[in-house]
Specification:
UraD-like, globular, mainly alpha
Length: 146
């Protein structure tokens, strides 16, 4: 397991966060970017938070995934679960205006489906914060596992 780095490039961060966003650019300018990521996220405006979340692939997405995302999402191919995930992802995005992001590494899609069902009931501001917190957790985990 690797320790959190003192500095990362935009390209390294873009890989961890699934795209080059304002969040990634700010983190690249920050010493201890993964350690201070929650602080940087807290200073982002809503549009930049939405951009960061929307760069991440949808849970259950089967094509166009980075190698990391494909590995994290696993091989669970139950058509009923995938169909419900696709439907609830759409409901979530229509309600909140951004993608559902949750730490999934090692979790069955049925378990993630339960989390998605529960989080749809949340308020938008709460979900924006929760999604960003999950996004940072994913990036930290990706760094320490490689």
């Amino acid at each position: 397991m690797r320790e959190l780095p003192r500095q990362l490039t935009v390209d390294e961060l873009a890989e961890l966060f699934e795209g080059r966003t304002r969040l990634v650019e700010l983190l690249a300018e920050t010493e201890d970017p993964l350690g201070r990521a929650d602080d940087v996220v807290a200073r982002l405006d809503e549009a930049d938070k939405v951009e960061a979340l929307s760069a991440h692939p949808a849970i259950g997405q089967r094509s166009g995934l980075s190698e990391r995302s494909a590995s994290e999402q696993g091989s669970d191919r139950d058509p009923a679960v995938l169909s419900e995930l696709a439907y609830l992802n759409q409901v979530y995005e229509e309600k909140f205006g951004f993608r559902f992001v949750v730490f999934v590494a090692g979790r069955a899609k049925r378990e993630v489906l339960e989390v998605l069902r529960a989080r749809i009931a949340n308020a938008r501001e709460q979900e924006l914060d929760t999604g960003c917190h999950e996004l940072v957790a994913i990036a930290r985990n990706r760094w320490t596992r490689t």
